[in-house]
Each structure stands twice: as structure tokens, then as C-alpha cells.
Amino acid sequence: MEQPYGFRVRGIYATAISKILIDYGFKPGDISEKLSKRLNTESEGPVDVTVKNSDDNKSLLVIIGVPGAVEEAFKAISSVVKTSLYRGPLPLYMVFRARVSSQDMGGCYVETPLGVHGYLKDRTCYKGEDLVATIIGYRGDGTPLIDRGIYIVGRYMILLDKPVEKISEHIRDPDVILELRGISDMILKQGLGVSWRSSASRASLKELLEELDALKRTLTEVSTKASSAASIEPLYVGEKIAFIHLSPEDMGELDRVRSLVTPTAPMHHVIKAFSDSPDTADLLDSIAASGAPPNSILNGLRRHLVERLSSGAEILIIHNRPFEKPRILGKGRLKTYLNLEDGLWLGVVRSITGSGVYDGLGIQKEKDDRALTIIGENSWLTIHAYYRYNSELKGVYININTKPAVIYDGMIKISYLDLELDASIVHSELKIVDQERFERLCGGNETGACGRARRELERVKNLYSDLWSILSRSGEYVTSGRDEESMDVFNERFRELVSIIRPTG
């Protein structure tokens, strides 16, 4: 890194990410008193990059700021978390002239300099319209989000060529808000708009006005260029943004990093990310601080979990699709489990509700269908077998995902990161699902989670026939009662299934 960029970190990974960035050569530009004491450092200057977890998905890291700083921070963090998924760095507040290529009920799709279409949420747009636009964000599927007009980015504010005002929710001091609104009135009277950033609360009036003058000059320059620019020619880039969707395994790696500066119990970040009782992590940290060995804490958590694995226990499966808000597959009931040296294996039965077809199978959902899900703590495969009310196997969906985390916080929860590469079995025939989406996500990457997903798919091609055979003979035990004889047979089938799915390395 040629120069020491300044950083700010917010959210549940703040300590671990700060440690990584400081070790890499970054300087804290805005650091809390608690973090300052932990890391024995102080705020030293401006903020060039901010790293935080997403508000609606605590397993998703967002890195945003000055282009060079974002690239270096992304490089530093991704060198530590190696089984996660990555997107970016991507340009943010990129201004360009565009043409609308198509429209739907909610807005229009617009050509962008990135080689993909962006989405403009505006019902007044129309096909063929020529406009000046700015990329203001990205959807979970990677689609750029577009707004009309020009956004020019500063340290304290974003200046717009249309009269709107926004003040960061992190600015709460009424005196500061009053001062900013006074400047906003002046800006709005000029036909311009402003979005105040949280850093504006720490700037002097002189600094704010100097930046405003500089941004106005840039806005004029970009506006002049836009009047004669070719379509989809980039005219300005204010920032960059990158995303890292953390796997549960990499949350464990961040536990290790955090433990270098403050007592940290195993599963600290997993509990913070997925539990409805995140304060449990702080309690366990206090136990670690009292001298309890990490293995003892981990064994205690495991014992507490296993004691709740009674037949019929309620199970919640949290399905994390890359860069999207987590989706709950639905509550199920534990049918059986194995507690092996390499972790727990759970057999969970769910009643299917709703209508439509099963994704990836193309088979109609029917009343009284049942699903058997087989999931293991150390497995990169999750199996979903779907049965009719008469115990006939309708189809099998094989999800390739990172190794899941299993926690108990009043309910047993299982969470994993989907790797967008799956397979289905219908009538004994295997079909690969979502390969195009996987290639868009991973490209030619053969390392980390992407490389492991490719290897798991090759395993599936060898085991699917045996998997179908066993599952097709297990339907009556999935849909029937729980008498002792039936359970004995089902448990034996479950052991067979686990022996097939269990990782080989």
C-alpha cells in the first residue's frame, strides 16, 4: 500500500476487521473509545474507507470509500477470510450518459459502462430515452441501481444536480442538524441538492463551505462533459464498493483474529450474526476472560446443544444466498441425528405449504408433501428429499454450500452460505442447476469456496445414484409415525446416507 489510508469500522466485526486493517498498514480515522483501548491506538486523520456489516444481513460485509482505499481494504480482509464469497470492488457514484433499453411496471433497464444493464426505479422513464445517470448502489443479484442526474462525492457531503436534501441518520446532535440545514437551504436555492454524510458532524463550517465550493466546480465540469458525451462513457467515479459474504467458517477465523486483542469465546461472531440473543456472545467472552480454555467453552456449547436434540425438536434452517437477505426455509422437526467425530448430522422433516413448483425440480407442490433435509456440520452438501403423502419420492435437491453453523438460542438454528451451484435428481436422473449463476459469481476461480463447490459437484456426479436409491426406500419412514421399529429402520438408512455424503477431505 503506497499511502496509509484512514478507515472506520462499524458493526459486529469491528474489532477483528480493525486489527486486520491496522496490521496491513491502515490508520484509524474514526475509532470508538472501546476500540481505541483494545487496539492501543487513536483516531489519526480522515476516513478513506468504511467497513460495516449490512443492516439486514449481518453475515455480509460492505466496504465503501475512496477507490484506492477500498481496493486495499478488500485485499487485506479477503486474504484472511478465504471460504467466503466476494463481489467487487465496483464503481459507485459513477456518472455516465445512458439510453433506456427496456422497461417494466416499476421502471427501466439502462445500459451502463459495466457491460451489464442497470435498473432505474422510475415509472416515467421510457424505452429509447437518453439521460444522464449515476450508479448509486447494487442489488443482491449484482444489478447496478441507477438514478437520474449527477452525484458528486465529497468527504462530508454528496452534491446533486437536483434539489433534494438528506441528512445521515448517524447525525443526531440538534445543533449540528440545524447548522447543516442552514447550508442546505443555500444549496437548494441554487437548484442543487445535498446528502450530508455522518462525517459532516465533525467538520467545521469553514471545511464544509470549502468542500461545497470544490464539489460545485466538479459538478459543473461533469455536467459540461455530459452534454456532449457518447453513450455509456464514464464521466466521473466518486467511490468504489465491495462486498464479502462471510461463511460461518470464516466467522470463526475472525474469532481468532479478535482473540488476539480481547478475550473472545468460540462462535462469537456466529452467535452475533444469527442468534436472537446476541448478548450470549458477550457472556461467553466474559467466561473466556476469566481463564476458561476455548475448548472447554466450545465443548460446553456442544453439550448444551446436543441435550436439546430430542426427537421432534424444532429446527430453523437459515439459507444465505450470496449478497442477499437471509431466507428462512421454514421450521422443521428433528427426525434423527448422529453426533460423530467430525460434527453433528441432522435429519429434519418439514411439511410443505403453499403452491407452485419446487425450484430446480420442476415438480408441482402438492398437499401433504414432506421434505427430509440432511445436513452435517462438516459437510458442503445439504440434501432435500421431497415425498408425496403416499411416501413416493418426488425428487431430490442437492444444495452445495459452505459448512453450516449450528446454534441453540431457545431454538436450534442451522445457517450456511449457498454457493449457487446445485444439482437435482428426478426419476433417477441428475441435472446440474444454476451453473450459469455460479460462473457469474466465481468466474474461473478454482480456490476457496468456489474451488470447493466445483469439487463437490464432481462428488455428486458419483454418488447421486446411491443417494436416490436409499432415499426412494426411505419414504414411508419419513412420512409415517414414530414407532420404535420404523425408527430403527430409518436410523439405519440415515447412517447409510451420511456415509455417502460425508466429506472425504
Helix content: 25-40%
User: In DSSP terms, counting alpha (H) and pi (I) runs of 4 or more, how many helices?
Assistant: 13
Shape-level CATH architecture of the domain at 308-501: Beta Barrel
Overall radius of gyration: 26 Å
Low-confidence stretches: none
CATH uppermost class of the domain at 308-501: Mainly Beta
- The fraction of residues in strands falls at 25-35%
Largest sheet: 7 strands, mixed, barrel
Classification by helices and strands: alpha+beta
Number of extended strands: 23
Beginning-to-end CA distance, first to last residue = 36 Å
Summarize the structure.
The protein is α+β, with helices and mostly antiparallel strands. The chain has 13 helices and 23 strands.
Secondary structure topology:
Blueprint: E1 6-10, H1 14-24, E2 27-30, H2 33-39, E3 49-54, E4 57-65, H3 67-78, E5 85-103, E6 108-111, E7 117-120, E8 130-138, E9 144-148, E10 151-153, E11 157-160, E12 165-167, H4 174-189, E13 193-196, H5 205-226, E14 234-245, H6 248-259, H7 268-274, H8 279-289, H9 294-306, E15 314-320, E16 327-340, E17 343-351, E18 370-376, E19 381-387, E20 393-401, E21 405-408, E22 412-426, E23 429-433, H10 435-442, H11 448-472, H12 475-479, H13 484-501
Parallel strand pairs: 1-2, 1-3, 7-9, 12-13, 15-22
Antiparallel strand pairs: 3-4, 4-14, 5-6, 5-8, 5-14, 6-7, 8-9, 10-11, 11-13, 15-16, 16-17, 17-18, 18-19, 19-20, 20-22, 21-22, 22-23
